[in-house]
Amino acid sequence: MNREIIATGRTVDEALDKAYEQMGISRDEAQFEILDLPKKGFLGLGSTPAKVRVYIEISKAQCAVDYLQSIFHQMGLENVQIDVTESENCANLTLNGEGLGVLIGRRGETLDALQYLAGLVANRMEGDYYRIVVDSGNYREKREKTLENLAKKLSSQVIRTGRSVTLEPMNPYERRVIHATIQGIEGVTSSSIGEEPSRRVVISSTNPPKKTYNRERSAEGGERSRGIRGGRSGRSGRGGYEKRQPREKYVPQDVTPNRTKVEVEDDSKPLYSKIEID
What we know:
- This protein is of the alpha+beta class.
- The protein has helices at residues 12-23, 60-75, 101-104, 109-122, 139-161, 172-183, 213-230, and strands at residues 2-9, 31-36, 50-57, 81-87, 90-96, 131-136, 165-166, 188-193, 200-205.
- It has three domains: 2-57, no CATH class; 60-137, GMP Synthetase, Chain A, domain 3, CATH 3.30.300; 140-205, Ribosomal Protein S8, Chain: A, domain 1, CATH 3.30.1370.50.
- Helices cover 36% and strands 20% of the residues.
- The chain is rod-shaped and about 145 Å long.
């Protein structure tokens, strides 16, 4: 992408000076092209001024820097400086100055938005995809360490309990940090679910514990049901019942109270016995 301006003057040098002044650069920072040479007319009539085109080649990184500076100017942040570190198909833009807190935002949301927009502007130019990373101080480094510690802590919990853990929604950069950390921990794995911007990371165990709890409860319930049918008097241990012993056959006993036996006189006998008189 080129930044250019076309200027005119009575001479070529005058036209170039006007162009450099309007662009705010020096002669060494730009290239120029002469479009028309000055021509003198007859008796000063019909003269043609010199016409030049001054341009500078702007890289994708510089295009992103210019865009960010325009935003900072609209926000009233005139003292923010941008340090550029370029590598192959990538540029790191580090912000330095005052009032950087407002540029970071909650959990880096504002910083992520600036990075996304700067990347879109830079990649409007022709060529391969160019990655733009916007950082404020060493915020990215601190956030990365925090995410690594979080991934390790939750991994230990998953290994101990065998239950999966779902994290809060994260941007692609933060999810990559979580996935990279999980790959180095044995016994857990990670995946992403949902759609942007609510896409989340799920940490799961690769060795879930065997589900023996239900079988123990079912066996315990069977003993309890048998114990209920056999009576509650045979309870043995916690939650268990012994089989009730069979009852002995009931034999009724004589419960008639003791009474004095009364002899009944025989009516066939005489009332009085025989009396002999000498």
